[in-house]
Amino acid sequence: MAFRFNWPEFDSEFYGEARSQLEAALNKGNKPKNIVDHISVTELNMGTTAPDLEILEIGELSTDKFRGIFKLTYCGDAYIVIQTKVQANPMHAKESDLPRHTRPSVLAADQPLVVPMLLRISDLKLRGIVVLVVSKTKGITLVFKNDPLESILVSSTFDSVTSVRSFLQREIENQLRNLFQEDLPV
């Protein structure tokens, strides 16, 4: 059995709250060492296409608890744009145990080069099996039984540098896979 969502135009209050929660999550914990500033969500759009959900199994249905297994498919036009500053000089080493006069130096080549970066994640394609549990006492738990990420498009300020573009694409795909498999089950 499958059903369709009514996918409305989300209001500015929803987007404001979602941006705030995403920023808090992105700035929580340890960031990669090259990110040297606060990460801001500058754009967030849920798109015009709703995900498709197919009910595979209803395991439990009561007034206190619901447990269901669904097949989720998403191939829509949602996107997010984030902004931060990155340390872009690969020669820059933040810490060294050596005294300054004994370290190799190439005419200030080891000085920091902090540049702004815009990063856009779009063209998200997901296909996965989801277990959803809603409990009055324990809240909501959502777990992907498989890796749902089929593909995404990552574009940034550094798209003209092929190696950086490839690195960012790979790194963000890995982070999203980790999010879906390990961090999301809450």
Automatic annotation (TrEMBL):
It is found in: Membrane. GO terms for molecular function: lipid binding. PROSITE patterns: SMP. CDD domains: SMP_Mdm34. GO terms for biological process: mitochondrion organization; mitochondrion-endoplasmic reticulum membrane tethering; phospholipid transport. It comes from the Eukaryota. Signal peptide: none annotated. Residues 1-186 form the SMP-LTD domain. The keyword Membrane applies. Keywords: Lipid transport, Lipid-binding, Membrane, Mitochondrion, Mitochondrion outer membrane, Transmembrane, Transmembrane beta strand, Transport. Its main location: membrane. InterPro entries: MDM34 (IPR027536), MDM34_N (IPR058825), SMP_LBD (IPR031468). One of its GO terms (cellular component) is ERMES complex. This is SMP-LTD domain-containing protein. The lineage of its organism: Eukaryota, Fungi, Fungi incertae sedis, Mucoromycota, Mucoromycotina.
